[in-house]
């Protein structure tokens, strides 16, 4: 009965692209709308670590644990989705490795022989990896288009069409797009969209620094995360780093942080004869106020489904799969239970 259902996905980042691909694969007539271009938001400034571990109690542990299998499936289905499964090496005073992922200095040196001062022990998650988030997003959009999806970029959403409590379409700068279901996957822009419906969601735009370097290839073998640096090497030999954002003071500007981080990396690794920043910028991550994804039907706005989260790259593949099953096949996933939007609304008013 859902074959041919008209679905508008607002947002052409990696989450929206995954939703479009999975929904189109189940027979939906998908239209992807974005105020900018494909992967023009935080997707383009993501460190893109497929990080499935969490030290604290984690209500979405089942989602994280399914993320890697979902990405392996995408690699099989879409040859243009390319992931570097290098593993992630983490150490520092705040890291207490689990028994099944704890490695000693000898193993650390084998994994990362260029480390100047390898620690006594570290945590190594061999199954983790990283990807080019923008390239993966383009691959997902192209695959969705091959399945019949339509892409409308540079087309801001201005409002929603309604019949009573039912949302029936999206009002854009190019006119109304009629829909049986609207999926909000616009990252930090999602809060403004739900506010247009009178149902604001508490989503913070959390800044982080993304840095790209030219540096000697073949020095960094895994993804290294320690108090001094978070760095990995891309398939093209470019080094990528991520740093916390500390404000707008001159010493905290992205270019200044990139220079300090380069010095820190050179101090940690042998053989870094040169390391030059190519790009340093701030990315705004969409983080719901309680830290959990917001995924599900928006109360009191029939026909609207919300899908916003951090970490978006890690969860994009599995969330695209589960949400498409929910929308197209009415298969409710227990893994999404902690993520429902209802937690932010008074049930008596929603």
From TrEMBL:
<keyword id="KW-0560">Oxidoreductase</keyword>
<dbReference type="Pfam" id="PF01266">
    <property type="entry name" value="DAO"/>
</dbReference>
<dbReference type="InterPro" id="IPR006076">
    <property type="entry name" value="FAD-dep_OxRdtase"/>
</dbReference>
<dbReference type="GO" id="GO:0016491">
    <property type="term" value="F:oxidoreductase activity"/>
</dbReference>
<feature type="domain" description="FAD dependent oxidoreductase">
    <location>
        <begin position="6"/>
        <end position="325"/>
    </location>
</feature>
<protein>
    <submittedName>
        <fullName>FAD-binding oxidoreductase</fullName>
    </submittedName>
</protein>
<dbReference type="InterPro" id="IPR036188">
    <property type="entry name" value="FAD/NAD-bd_sf"/>
</dbReference>
<dbReference type="GO" id="GO:0005737">
    <property type="term" value="C:cytoplasm"/>
</dbReference>
């Amino acid at each position: 009965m859902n074959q041919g259902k008209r679905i508008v996905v607002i947002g052409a980042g990696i989450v929206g692209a995954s939703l479009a691909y999975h929904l189109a694969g189940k027979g939906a007539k998908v239209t992807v709308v974005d105020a900018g271009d494909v992967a023009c938001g935080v997707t383009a400034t993501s460190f893109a670590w497929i990080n499935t571990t969490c030290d604290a109690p984690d209500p979405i542990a089942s989602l994280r644990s399914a993320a890697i299998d979902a990405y392996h499936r995408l690699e099989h289905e879409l040859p243009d989705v390319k992931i570097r499964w290098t593993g992630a090496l983490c150490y520092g005073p705040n890291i207490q490795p689990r028994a099944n992922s704890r490695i000693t200095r000898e193993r650390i040196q084998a994994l990362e022989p260029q480390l100047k001062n390898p620690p006594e022990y570290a945590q190594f998650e061999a199954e983790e990896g990283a990807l080019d988030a923008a390239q993966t997003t383009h691959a997902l959009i192209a695959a969705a288009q091959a399945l019949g999806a339509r892409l409308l970029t540079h087309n801001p959403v201005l409002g929603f069409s309604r019949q009573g409590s039912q949302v029936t379409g999206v009002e854009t700068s190019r006119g109304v797009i009629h829909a049986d279901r609207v999926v909000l996957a616009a990252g930090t822009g999602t809060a403004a969209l739900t506010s247009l419906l009178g149902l604001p969601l508490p989503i913070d735009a959390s800044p982080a620094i993304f840095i790209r370097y030219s540096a000697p290839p073949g020095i960094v073998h895994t993804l290294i995360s320690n108090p001094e640096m978070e760095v990995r090497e891309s398939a093209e030999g470019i080094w990528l780093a991520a740093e916390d954002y500390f404000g707008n003071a001159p010493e905290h500007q992205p270019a200044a942080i990139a220079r300090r981080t380069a010095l820190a990396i050179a101090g940690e690794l042998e053989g870094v004869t040169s390391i030059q920043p190519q790009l340093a910028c701030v990315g705004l991550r969409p983080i719901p106020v309680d830290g959990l994804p917001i995924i599900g039907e928006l109360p009191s706005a029939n026909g609207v489904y919300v899908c916003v989260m951090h970490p978006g790259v890690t969860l994009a593949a599995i969330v695209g799969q589960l949400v498409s099953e929910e929308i197209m096949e009415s298969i409710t996933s227990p893994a999404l239970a902690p993520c429902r939007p209802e937690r932010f609304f008074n049930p008596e008013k929603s």
